[in-house]
Amino acid sequence: MEQVIRKAYAKINLGLDVLRRRPDGYHEVKMVMQTVGIFDTLTFRRRAGEGTRPLISISVDNEELPTDGNNLIYKAAELIMRTYVIKDGVDIKLQKNIPIAAGMAGGSSDAAAVFHGLNELFSLSMSLEDMKKLGVKIGADVPYCIMGGTALSEGIGEILTPISAPPEAYLLIAKPDISVSTKFVYENLHADTLKKHPDIDGMVKALEEGSLKGITDRMENVLETVTVKKYPVIAQIKDEMRSHGAENALMSGSGPTVFGIYREKGTALKAYEEMKKKGLARQIYVTEFQG
Ligand code: ATP
């Protein structure tokens, strides 16, 4: 194989709970992860390894992102190529579409695409389990992104259980013009003193029953206690989505991206227009859940 093209899908959290902070600093989470139809595109090209050229080279169509060893794509490629002792080189091109530092696991999803892409390009025969085991070394969300779909995520994010997909619905996704550091949010979260925890078990049941109302009634994210306090525009966007027909709206991950869930496509499209007029966010999308 000389060239492989992969889509890297973004995720949202339909529910996000933090159970406790472990002594090693990691947080134990309980989250419902869902892939959505916003994606980056990665193109992998194989070339003969030469003495002078680096084995991995990356080009990105977005100036905000690093193209060196700090890019998660590079980290994933390096780990795989070291583990499988690959002597050939690879050129990776990233077309970025997922909002950056947004709570949509864009970087983790790109890394996950590297696992699938290099597995095919170099015929490595890695199983999904092999990829997930190696992927967690790059980041806690990478194993989920390798798998995709709807999943319950526990532990530090590496204990994954596939669960029923939500019923058909439309999503309005809006990212206000601020970047949020995941590290900052977790460091400022007081996990042990949270007064209220989301009903994640109830949401899993609602998913099994295919009840959209059961799902939207339980949408909660404890990280809002940190991010919304710092950036009130997130609450404004949620209100705006709800007042334009969303069943409910929530911040995804550590934010600042907000998603609203709509029963009808027409309502979601109308809300999109209203959101644009308001000017609360520049990156706005209408999309659907992705299997
Ligand atoms: P999460 O939901 O997992 O917290 P996020 O959406 O908050 O992710 P990302 O967009 O994945 O955040 O990236 C956060 C930071 O990681 C960026 O500021 C960027 O500099 C760095 N980064 C490294 N590689 C990538 C990549 N391929 N895509 C996006 N960001 C990357």
Shape: globular
Instruction: Give the C-alpha Rg.
Output: 19 Å
Task: Give every kind of bound small molecule, once each.
Answer: adenosine-5'-triphosphate
| β-sheet strand percentage | 25-35%
Low-confidence stretches: none
Helix content: 25-40%
Helix/strand class: alpha+beta
Please summarize the sheet with the most strands: 6 strands, mixed
How far apart lie the N and C ends? 27 Å
Task: Summarize the entry for a quick read.
It is built from ten helices and ten strands. The protein is α+β, with helices and mostly antiparallel strands.
Structure report:
The protein is α+β, with helices and mostly antiparallel strands and 291 residues long. Helices cover 33% and strands 29% of the residues. The strands form 2 sheets. Strands 1, 2, 3, 4, 5 and 6 form a 6-stranded mixed beta sheet that branches. It is globular. A hairpin with a 3-residue loop joins strand 5 (150-155) and strand 6. The mean pLDDT is 95.
Quickly list its features.
291 residues; alpha+beta; six-stranded mixed sheet; four-stranded antiparallel sheet; globular; binds adenosine-5'-triphosphate
Produce the secondary structure layout:
Layout: E1 3-21, E2 27-47, E3 56-60, H1 72-83, E4 89-95, H2 106-121, H3 128-135, H4 142-147, E5 150-155, E6 159-162, E7 170-175, H5 182-187, H6 200-209, H7 212-216, H8 224-230, H9 233-243, E8 248-251, E9 258-262, H10 265-278, E10 283-288
Parallel strand pairs: 3-4
Antiparallel strand pairs: 1-2, 2-4, 2-5, 5-6, 7-9, 7-10, 8-9
The protein binds adenosine-5'-triphosphate.
Adenosine-5'-triphosphate (ATP) is lined by residues 65, 70-73, 100-108, 110, 141, 182, 253-254.
